[in-house]
Specification:
six-stranded antiparallel β-sheet, LRAT_dom, two-stranded antiparallel ribbon
Length: about 200
């Protein structure tokens, strides 16, 4: 069942800290951050804004520990280490200003099917942690939204991917084929590494 989410806009770091103190934001919270992006060519503007989703593992007044699909560096991609990887990352409110872009929009997401008890929340975080290191990113079928929705509701779904249109849709389609090509090259590389290991030459 696809979770129907409600959202609460978080206006500032102070607002985030108030939500943590009130118990609204903590272990197994779902946060969506809007990433405003646009390409300007002559008098046309092509909007390819998107939303990044992450799961909160731990929340304190000093920062968050989050689990999300993070893009790899160009070097990591060239070395065939995947285009994105599920990682756990610590955000220090005093120094990390990039991930929580309050100007573009930070939202605390909730749904009826999301876990409510501490035990259920702990199980969800454990489920997400079992996927740490995974590099099976897919723009349409296994992205950051899919990871969080699957972790919290058991249903892997991305409303953003299913409703993509315009430049964002074309970027997604191109990225999908680039990822397929990348994986094919990675498989060929792995084949030759195994062959080398077997033959010892």
């Amino acid at each position: 069942m696809v979770a129907v989410c409600t959202e609460k806009r978080l206006e500032s770091l102070d607002h985030v800290v108030r939500c943590i103190r009130a118990g609204e934001l903590g272990c197994a919270s779902h946060i969506r951050v809007h990433r405003a992006r646009a390409l300007h060519v002559l008098w046309w503007t092509f909007d390819y804004s998107y939303n990044h989703h992450f799961l909160v593992n731990e929340a304190t007044e000093e920062g968050l520990v989050i689990i999300h699909y993070a893009p790899k560096t160009i070097t990591g991609m060239v070395l065939l280490r995947g285009v994105a990887e599920i990682i756990q990352e610590s955000l220090d409110f005093a120094t990390d200003r990039e991930i929580l872009d309050f100007e573009s929009g930070v939202f605390l997401m909730d749904a009826e099917v999301y876990p409510k008890t501490p035990k259920e929340k702990s199980e969800c975080v454990k489920r997400a942690r079992r996927r740490l290191g995974e590099r099976q990113y897919s723009v349409f079928h296994n992205n950051c939204d899919c990871l969080v929705s699957w972790t919290l509701s058991g249903c892997s779904y991305s409303r953003q991917a299913m409703n993509a249109k315009g430049l964002l849709l074309w970027i997604g389609i191109c990225a999908r084929y680039c990822i397929k090509t990348y994986r094919a090259i990675e498989n060929i590389k792995n084949f030759f590494v195994k062959l080398y290991n077997v033959t010892g030459e």
